[in-house]
Amino acid sequence: MIKTVVHKSETRGHANHGWLNSFQTFSFSGYHDPARIHFGALRVLNDDTVSGGMGFGKHPHDNMEIISIPLEGDLEHQDSMGNSAVIKKGEVQIMSAGTGIYHSEKNKNPKEAVKFLQIWVFPDKKNIEPRYDQQAFDEKGRENTFQTVVSPLETEGGGVKINQDAWFSLIKLSETTERAYTLKAENHGVYVFVISGSVEINGEILKERDGMGVSETGNFILKSVKDAEVLLIDVPMHF
Predict the structure, then answer these.
(1) Three-state SS annotation for 66-122
(2) Of 18, 71, 132, 148, which is the most exposed, with the fewest CB atoms less than 10 Å away?
(3) What is the C-alpha separation between 239 and 185, in angstroms, rounded?
(4) Residues 6+ apart with CB under 8 A from 35
């Protein structure tokens, strides 16, 4: 029987530092809930807004897959591998921290906020050589269909490569449209995060910024209550 866990947007952790307004689906920094440490290999799902010209100074990471998905504005990235880039809506960035890396993230625009999702996934191999990737995706490719933006594959259409058997998909659903999602493996679960709009899964209505973990099933139906954009994170539940 399908197993679900629902996280309403208002139950997330919250920290407002003035320059950074952050909502945390799972325990992070000053927010700790022993019932919300992770969902399978998914460790962090932060919904961040950074004020104009502000950002995170250079700081270290290791042995974590770190994915950034901009929702609005321009996010500037620099790291100790020599990468310097700006990522925008429609693009996805990944950093496999591996043996260790330093990076900084800054709002490129001095006057307007940047909004992005920062997601951490446990790797399937530790102490690999750090790597960086960034790709742009045609948003028309996710209209009423699942567009793969992250996967373990190094093939065309596989999205940015992750060091884990994890798959990220984005979909824009027109009102009252439904699509069946098939999980990638028997021991996987899917974390569904509603970026905008409203959807229904297994009789549960999810609104903007609500999340639901779905596991112990091979597939489920995602139905839009109104126009919606949804992120699906398909990860091993045991790793």
Answers:
(1) EEEEEEECEEEEEECCCCEEEEECCEEEEEECCCCEEEEEEECCCCCCEEEEEEEEC
(2) 18
(3) 13
(4) none
Rounded to an integer, what distance in angstroms lies between the CA atom of residue 128 and that of residue 191?
26
pLDDT digits (tens, 9 = 90+) for 79-100: 898 989 899 999 999 999 999 9
Query: Which positions ≥6 away from 32 have C-beta within 8 Å?
Result: none
Q: Are 78 and 134 in contact (CB under 8 A)?
A: no
Domains and CATH numbers, the chain: 3-236 (2.60.120.10)
Token readout for 147 is 């567009």
Q: Are 136 and 165 in contact (CB under 8 A)?
A: no
Rounded to 10 degrees, what is the CA torsion of 62, 66, 72, 75? 40
The DSSP string of 15-54 is EE-SSEEEEESS-BTTB--TT-S-BTTEEEEEEEEE-TT-
The alpha carbon of 180 is separated from its chain's Cα centroid by a whole number of angstroms, namely 20
Beta-ladder partners of 128: none
User: Does residue 195 or residue 56 have the better pLDDT?
Assistant: 195
Token pair recorded at residue 207: 């609104």
**Nearest residue to 92 (alpha-carbon basis) of 146, 54, 50, 139:** 139
188-201 and 204-206 strand pairing:
antiparallel
